[in-house]
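Last lecture ended with a question: if I hand you only a sequence, what can you say about the shape of the protein? Today we answer it with a concrete record. The protein is Tetraspanin Tsp2. Below, first the input exactly as provided, then the predicted structure, then a couple of comments.
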Amino acid sequence: MHSSQAPIAQRHPSLAFYPSYITRLSARAAPHRARQLLRPSPSTFGSSAVANVGGITAYYYTHLAWADHLLQAMLYPVVPPSKPTFRSSLSTKQSKTTAVGTPRSREKDASAQRDLAALRSALAPLLSASHTNVTLLARVIELRALIALGRWAEVGAALERAESAVGLAFPPPTAPDTAAGAKPETELYTTSPFHAALVVHILVLGIVWFAYSAIPTSPQPGPEGGAGKEGTASVSTPVSVRLTLLYSLLDAGVYNGKCRATSARADGQIDMGLESEGVLEVPLDASTLPLYIYSTHPRVLYALGYLVSAVARRDLVGRKPKRKTFLLEGLSVVDRETQRELRVPRWASAGGVQTVEKQMAKIKADLMCELVAVSIMRSEFDDAERTLDAVIAHTRNHSLFGGSLAHRITLLHAQLAHALGRPARARTCYRVAAHLAEEVGDAGGAVAARAGEVALLVGMRARARAKAAGRALEPPLAGETEAAFTDCGESELAQMGKELAVACRGLGGAMRAVGEVLEGVLTTEILKAKQHFKNALNYATECQDNHLRALILALIAAHYLHTAGDQAQKMLATCEQLAAGLGAPAKKGKEQVNAVGNAPLRLWVGERFLELHKRDKRDDLIQKREEANRVLRDAAVALSRRRESAVATSVGVTMTASDAASTTASTRHMLPHHSLEPPRPPFASSSDDTSRSSSPVPSLNGSNISLQINYVPSKFSPGVRQRKGLTTKFGGGVDAFRAGEARIPKANEQDYDGVDVRATGRKAKWNKFKWVLVFSNTIYTLFALGAVIFMLTVWFDVWKHADVLRAGNHTELVLTTVAASMALLTAVIGWAGIVLNNRGFLAVYTFFLWIAFALLVIPGYITYKKFAFNLEGKINKQWSETLGAEGRLRIQNQLECCGYFSPFVEATISATCYSRSVLPGCKQGYLEYETVLLHRWFIAVFGCVPLTIGAIVAGLLCSNHVTYRFGKGMMPKAYRLSPESITAIMDSYASKLAEQYGYEPSPSPDESERLTSALPSSAVSLKHR
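The predicted structure:
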């Protein structure tokens, strides 16, 4: 198709605009041939290039499509599946100490360099274009590509070129009072949404670059850190001036057409344009048609502004740090924007909508990860754990756990375990995070994980040396085993630290400070260590990373502690102030458990202050410092107890089982001389199977003997065994539900209305509650039965066009059928409870009413949502993706149509539908049918809601007033005593006595007559009776 475009266009000049569009569509349809199709041919270069491709607009589209394809191929490469390879323990051990610059990484750098050169050659015609807006667009594409590929050495020059092309001119960063000079320039960005959107992109990329590079903007502070936070507050940094301009542009709403819609409200017409849908119009000139390009969706840009603001502001000291404020507000904005309807172009596909939703989900995951890091640095460990659980659930729900988020979340777990004093778990998580980062090619993430592991090993080896020297370690660690961390020797640890320091120099300002700290800790020369710590303090101050700055100040103070006490006290005071601010409550005076901030660091600083005060013999300060250290020590101990809570939980389960076993074993000595027989059934004979015929247990075959004989006498009512002689209470009340009480009602007791316990008497009539239940359940039964019958007629194709409903609304039909069936089952249970006066059935009936109500509302909501929100778009998607050939054929046969718009558009060939068919398209008829059907559907469903609610209210209010208490004391008929049952029980009891005491010999006839004559006449008559 691509080779035949030029001859057709030459024969038909009116088709000269179409070859470039057909080429791009072919590339989308065949991604494996996209590189061949989109590559500009030699005819697209030179003086006649515009005429060869069909005009200046097609010329720009051709090169933009090729540049976009190259950029996407570099950012999201398709990695072929590799076979698993065997890795020996030797190779695993060697991989731990492998340098960052491996041959594989060098190969990747060479490949990236080739791809970047190809991208620049593709952008060259656009950079030299005669239209300024096209050149500006090419500058932004180049800047985005360099930052996305990590080519940080070239980002600064590209950013300057892009800012100068768009007209951005910022004052020098050291002049705080010239920030207002950029205000007149903001008028340029309001000329068109295109300029505003590109300026927003440039500002976001510039903020990321300056926050990453941390270029020095002020004189560096001394080792004592006296500049502090206040020393740099009045200086306008490159990040701050760009953030200010970014906020003004986002609030103005020029980039998304919001300002235009606001100004048009006076005329009664609101048209936000394509900008609100993520489509930018690139104006060229008056004689040329504009370009239309897809850009970052305005919703994504707005949420991205919060993320960039939170990343750029690293200071966490204070009650309400701005970084945390931006993170929390950004999460609320993402949640709020997700609930709103997404504005997309009418020609947008489902993939485009899913892309925007996935971008919002990624931004939310990044915000939550940043919030976890903030909570860890501020010692808010409960919030960190909750947010970690939430971000894991969020990433798994949106299929984002792989890629860059897997090692990032693992690294957060490692940092949390490190802060909580769980070294074994922290080291494992650090190693896993480094491995995952190397798999996805994230060099920065791998270096951060390995730096954390090295810092952990350094700390654990220092604790092992202190423990060997007999010094007390505070605070203690959970399950501390320093021996488990001695697998890495001093030389190997030093080599790892040097490699990491070299790798950190190629990363941002914060990682450069980390590298300097590692070098200063691992070096054996004091002067070199001081110089490394001084460099680290400069980098941390420029980055405004006061969390890292507090640690560096503590390390520097340790070197000056015995040589320069005054400087050490200044640095310790600054360190304590920063550590206390990393946990200040939101409101002043609000007491919190973790309000002390970084308790271990403050405790260390307090111990050093105490040493200095004792050296200077400051008795007035020693007592105050000891009291403060006692409070900090309690906080550190509480933190250590919190560390052990996770271990104690798992151990507690095992201890509970062992305690139970020991308790059982301890009771064996209580009956040492008693031989316990195995349990036997009641009244069972102790003889063998041959004596079963003489067993006293009565035979139940074919008799009406009560099952009560199988119960031991202790299960009967204890009234006969009461020592006080009190009789058992009759009637209802609380005592009627007590275990073992008699269940004999008094006369005219309300609780037994309708139950005749006498041989004669008049039964009570129905009360008003039962009438209410009968009336409500009758109405409920009628509409449930009607709904089931109607659903069956639809399923059995009784109605006209019923097959259309089954094909196009299968989900709604199934849900409605389930709801109707559940309603009918609930009504049947209700009739069982009403007729039998059964409270148990009525309770189940009331509970099932709630389930039926939920099942009823679901199809109503689905049909209403489908009817009210873009029904035409949903039908378009359904016809193209969901129905399939069989479903489209069924609808075509029922509605007597062919294809969607015409027989040439997504038609299923049949006897009546073919290419030359005269039947109309199905869209109009199907849309009208769905409109009427869905409207009647949700009205009918929601019309049944009041009836269901009425039945629920009636069941809740009236079911407990049906007074026959089934299962609340009335003995079932099979267990009621009868004369035969009493005879069987007495025979069993007599046989048991005979077996125990022996059989008494039968009296002779003379003795029997003599005993009978001695009895009174009443006893003789009773005997004969």
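Comments.
1. The first helix runs from residue 5 to 11.
2. The two ends are 115 Å apart (CA to CA).
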